[in-house]
Glycosyltransferase
Amino acid sequence: MKKVIIASVLKPLNDTRAFYKLALSLRETNKYHVNIIGFFAKNTPTEPNIVFSTLQANHRLHYTRLTASLRFINLVKKYKPDLLVVTTYELLPAAVYLKKKLGFKLVYDVQENYSLNIKFNQTLPNWLGRLLSRAVSYIEKRAFKYVDHFLLAERCYQKELDLRDAFTILENKTTLKPIQVSPFQLSPNRPLTFVISGTLTPIYGVEEAVNWFIHLNKEAPHFNLSIVGHVPMQSFRRRLLELVEGHPHIHHELSSTPLPYPQITKTVSMADLVLMPYQQIDSIRYKIPTKLYESLALSKPIIHAPNHLWKDNTAPYSAALELDFLTPPTNADFLSNLHTHTFYKISPSTEVTWSQESTKWILLVDNLLG
């Protein structure tokens, strides 16, 4: 049985893409043993031919992160993989060093354009962001010639990283089974719960969405908002808690560590509408969030910030309304659009699911290790 490592530093061991998509797809073939290396997670699943190795257990800015690559090297040497999948630039130098020593195949799973994220995501002072952005680009470009194949979670990464060959696009489609529904409208008197979920940072537009909802709630007091997710920046978590304080129609679970995927999915399943208020900056506007595919599979109406790509993906199903959370329409206009729109005239099918991506992934690994 061939051995495969899927490695990250800050992604939890039960990460949606690493575990539920890449690892479980390989396990189903009964040809591969998978070791997922990443951030500590409680209650990791027990699955045949899949093991978990904690690389980092402290918060993202803890000093132990400086030695993560050394721990990673020891784990890889001990496991001796045939294929190493690295999901972060942070481990690329160590991966290249190990490839020269151990001779495995190396795949870089590009889940983010890290250089672009650092530049635009407003988590660092401008001067430091520019410096680190250039450093990440340098690390990646130096390592790219040693990478046997690239996985791209977004189509835009091919152009952004100037990749001409040896890449496969594996989009972040959902592992959820699509729910078939009849076309429906949301009646004016129906109590509705909106939900914001996932990783919560300033650029994801959470504050704008909360302020919009507070204003809307005055007109529609039978509406509720649930906010559930991982808030990696403690200063932002405090801001959110202050913002929602005193608003009984806003319910929240703001965690300093990633929440289990099933917990997030359950919350979204219980809601009536999904909010996607992302700021339309260059590190976001060309990507399709996983929650869009998940919302489509669950047949949940979506309210998203203006984005042509998202609109193109939701329009065939009549699944979404666009809303500029910075300059929203009047409450009356929004409620009129909401209550007169017919959602899901067509139900999504396998085109929003991971099944086709899984086939491409298995074929790629078979070819690399065949």
